[in-house]
Amino acid sequence: MTTQPTADPRQLPDVSGLRIGVLGGTGEQGRGLARRLAMGGLSLTIGSRDAQRARDIAGELGFGIRGVDNATCAAESDVVIVAVPWDGHAATLTDLREALAGRIVVDCVNPLGFDKQGAFALAVEEGSAAQQAAALLPDSTVTAAFNNVSAELLLDPDVDAIETDVLVLGDNREATDTVQAVVEVIAGMRGIFAGRLRNAHQVEALTANLISVNRRYKAHAGVRVTDV
Fold this sequence. Notes:
By secondary structure, the protein is an alpha/beta fold. The protein has one domain: Rossmann fold (3-Layer(aba) Sandwich). Helix content is 34%, strand content 21%. The protein has an eight-stranded mixed β-sheet. Helix 2 (51-61) links the parallel strand 2 (43-48) and strand 3 (66-69). Helix 4 packs parallel to helix 5. The two termini are 29 Å apart.
């Protein structure tokens, strides 16, 4: 019996025609991701609860980025990156359930707490922020990515390329391939499939470790996967 060869995991789809939206696009992580993806030639829209603030930030970012309210951002995008604060994560996604239907959703939210000892991962009833998103958005295809990327590097105009790997998780191969390709629009970044959505917790939690690394070494640490 012969078996069919598996598709080369390094062969990723063309995403140049996709419309990318960033919910929470006025925060540091959202602004940084929008800026870098637009620099890579993608069509970018940032969303905010305050549409005027989104327009103002979009004007500051340049690169043809548009600013609108969150619902419009979700409805007019093919791939939607969720970069909202954790404490508003569930409410935002619940409100946008219909607008996000049929979209690939990329959750990059890290549920973290902070005390005198530093950052630490919070327990999430569903297992992770990404799994919470999947539970709240049954008509969307939810993935996780960009969890371990420094917002400061994304926004730094003196940094031409961000040499880091981005772990991409999800239960739909076509969606994770698409998200990996979106990642690789950003100079220096490589998208690496890292498992199903049930494994998102440890990727989100790893950000707490990276914050500790950054504080000790005055750095902007990221992730590198070897032998891939």
